[in-house]
Write a structure and sequence with these properties.
Order of helices and strands: HEEEEEEEEHHEEEEEHEEEEEEEEEEEEE
Radius of gyration: 19 Å
Number of strands: 26
CATH superfamily: TolB, C-terminal domain
Distance between the termini: 35 Å
CATH topology: Neuraminidase
Shape: globular
Structural class: mainly beta
Number of domains: 1
Number of helices: 4
Strand content: 35-45%
CATH class: Mainly Beta
CATH architecture: 6 Propeller
Strand order of the largest sheet: 9-10-11-12-18
Length: about 375
């Protein structure tokens, strides 16, 4: 099995690795900002579900005009009250899908394209109805910099990336997954295979914000993957696989991890990074762990109530998505950004892949990216 979150969920789930999850968490207290009633959701049952939009849907996002944007393979769609409209097809490298979308206005959005072997095709796009323009050449940045290998603690050995059976070579790897817009000119991008948070600007500037380190054992040592290779002098660690990012009411940046092989329960974490940070390590003074004990985090988003909503792909691990183990159901968890206390508010979901809140506060969920349904969450 590979350790990366790759360009489609099918390929990703034969690459990255995770485990079970967020069970019996303590109920949170009220956050410092906003208020919550019930699960914090407002339901509009007349809308959806929308089942004929797939296959291969990897992200959803709320459009400023009240619609829901959908990333279907390489095409951006918008779900509106009067139907589904195609916005734009992104001319990605063949085989590289659109993994993430983030609106920046009524007529434009940022989108990520997934990385193939040696980061080929990894990028960030600025998309409008008229055109799609590559604004962040993440493939070039990763090739030249490879932050998790050569910056901060420099914990990753590029030799650990080789997997001929999956078509991956030793060397830099990148898979920009979900993202969020800081403003109309800057996006924050969770690079799952690069184990980093990136900043991408529409002028072409790409820089790394944070490097995420492997989960640790009780003694604080990095957990190992492929122990046989360590006997030959190559240490391969469990990869954190950051794949989701959101900006909190406090302005800080929050990142969720999928986490890599060997799919051990409870190893996924949520991090809070001080806004404006550059070139920090997680953990450090500027990057603290908000919550842990999750499994297979696939998305996170702040709701209109000020709570952080964390989506777990499946509490039996992402291996359930490829039939290796029976599924236990995915979850949505509500977390207090002040204390880090979390509770499950929506259990038993079918491989949820993304969450979004529309302009009325309604929560939307993407289930089963292979044969997708986009619906309101009740």
């Amino acid at each position: 099995m590979r350790e990366h979150w790759r360009s489609t969920l099918a390929l990703t789930l034969s690459v990255a690795v995770l485990s079970t999850g967020c069970q019996d968490r303590d109920p949170p207290t009220a956050p410092a900002t906003g208020s919550a009633t019930g699960a914090g959701f407002k339901i509009a049952p007349a809308q959806g579900p929308y089942e004929e939009i797939g296959p291969a849907v990897w992200d959803i996002a709320a459009a400023p005009d009240g619609g829901i944007l959908v990333a279907r393979n390489t095409t951006i769609l918008e779900i509106r009250t009067d139907g589904i409209e195609e916005i734009r097809t992104v001319p990605t490298t063949p085989g590289s899908p659109v993994n993430g979308i983030a609106p920046v206005g009524r007529a434009s959005l940022f989108a990520t394209s997934g990385g193939l072997d040696l980061a080929a095709g990894a990028g960030v796009w600025h998309v409008s109805r008229g055109r799609a323009r590559l604004v962040g050449d993440v493939a070039a940045f990763e090739t030249d910099n490879d932050p998790d290998a050569f910056e901060g603690p420099m914990w990753k050995n590029q030799a650990c990336e080789e997997d001929p059976g999956q078509g991956f070579s030793a060397g830099p790897q990148s898979n920009p997954y979900h993202l969020t817009a800081v403003d109309g000119g800057t996006a924050l991008v969770a690079d799952a295979a690069g184990n980093s948070l990136l900043s991408v600007e529409t002028n072409g500037t790409v820089d790394w914000v944070a490097v995420f380190t492997p989960p640790v054992d009780a003694s604080g040592d990095y957990r190992f993957l492929k122990p046989a290779l360590s006997d030959s002098g190559i240490d391969c660690y469990v990869q954190p696989v950051p794949n989701s990012v959101a900006i909190g009411p406090d302005g800080d940046w929050y990142v969720g991890e999928l986490t890599g092989a060997p799919a051990v329960p409870g190893w996924s974490r949520v991090w809070r990074i001080e806004k404006g940070s550059r070139h920090v390590t997680c953990p450090s003074a500027a990057c603290e762990m908000l919550a842990d004990g999750f499994t297979s985090i696939i998305d996170l988003e702040f709701g209109p109530d000020g709570w952080l909503y964390v989506v777990e792909l499946d509490e039996a691990s992402w291996l359930a998505a490829i039939g290796v183990i029976p599924p236990a159901g995915g979850t949505v968890n509500r977390c207090d950004p002040g204390t880090g206390l979390c509770e499950v508010v929506a259990p038993g979901l079918e491989l949820p892949g993304a969450i979004a809140f529309d302009d009325r506060g309604t929560a939307w969920i993407l289930e089963n990216s292979f044969d997708p349904t986009v619906r309101t969450l009740d």
